[in-house]
Amino acid sequence: MKSKIFIDGDSGTTGLGIRDRLAGRMDLELIALPQAQRKDLAAKQNVLSQVDLTILCLPDEAAKETVALCDALGAKAPRILDASTAHRTAPGWIYGFPELCANQAQEIAKAQRVANVGCYATGAIALLRPLIDAQLLPSSYPLAINAVSGYSGGGRQMIESYEKGEAAAFELYSLGHQHKHIPEIMAYARLERPPIFAPSVGNFRQGMLVSIPLALDALPKKVTAKDLQETYQRHYHQAPHVHWVAAPTNGRLDALALNNTDDMEVYVFSNETLRQIILVARLDNLGKGASGAAVQNLNLMLSKTQ
Fold it and tell me: Roughly what angle, to the nearest 10 degrees, separates helices 119-133 and 225-236?
């Protein structure tokens, strides 16, 4: 029997990416709400009552509204995969990063409600959580996280601005230290203090690099680059979409190299003489950072392969 799926907000970047990835799947039936009824809450609730799972690709307040409609359905409510920011640290929701820890994929598979990851957050957490779990990096360490994303992660207005040639070639933003991904980074990397997070956007449609510098001599225990590399190798050795990769000898990384894939790579760039490290995660912000991650979570929730 086909699983019935409703993508609430399938006209946005993430929703379109999910729909494209699911096109042609013979095991799924995508249920759509006619354009004229998309703001009709009764019509939406009727669709929700008929599907097995709904994927929310909505602004936060609209996502909360749809969740309230599901709550009102009681036993007829579908399972929910929320791609907004609204429920990433909310009680009762499972965080949709299967590679987070040993049992996370199983938790996602049996969950009624899953919050899809944020694009920057998935890169930062992928770099930090294994090191903190291995006690190589203290959870209280004062961290700085730098990141650059393609403009497709900024929503309709930013996309239009870049594609019209009206936007800056490169810009830092969210310099008020209140980026919406910080709470989930803290929660799932197990940080005790907010990191200094400096996101930026470049004049390319998609692609992402997240980098974290570390001064090894500032750590409370002696740590080497090999320790970090081996920790990533152990943590991700069976992960289908996250991989430790040896750092290229030229010391350069192309932010666009994983575009149109659902994978992420983690790197350790080291200078043992200076005792300095730069950790880097590379991903497609529309792939493993959004739509690709959602489909991976969907497959787990429906007991399909990742």
Answer: 110
Backbone φ, ψ for residue 16 (5° rounding): -65, -40
Closest CA to 228 of 247, 210, 208: 247
Q: What is the pLDDT of residue 158?
A: 85
> From its phi and psi, is residue 177 left (phi > 0), alpha (psi between -120 and 50) or beta?
left
Question: What is the percent of the chain with per-residue pLDDT over 70, rounded to a whole number?
Answer: 99
**Measured CA angle at 237 (ends 234, 238), to 5 deg:** 135
Which residues are catalytic, by number?
119
User: 243 and 306 in contact (C-beta within 8 Å)?
Assistant: no
pLDDT at 154: 81
Cβ partners under 8 Å of residue 138, min gap 6: 132, 219, 220
Q: Does residue 198 sit in helix, strand or coil?
A: strand
Strand-by-strand arrangement of the 208-215 sheet = 170-172, 196-202, 144-150, 208-215, 276-283, 264-271, 242-244
The token pair that represents 19 in the structure block: 């729909």
Q: Is 215 exposed, middle or buried (0-12, 13-18, 19+ CB in 10 A)?
A: exposed
Residues of the chain with pLDDT under 50: none
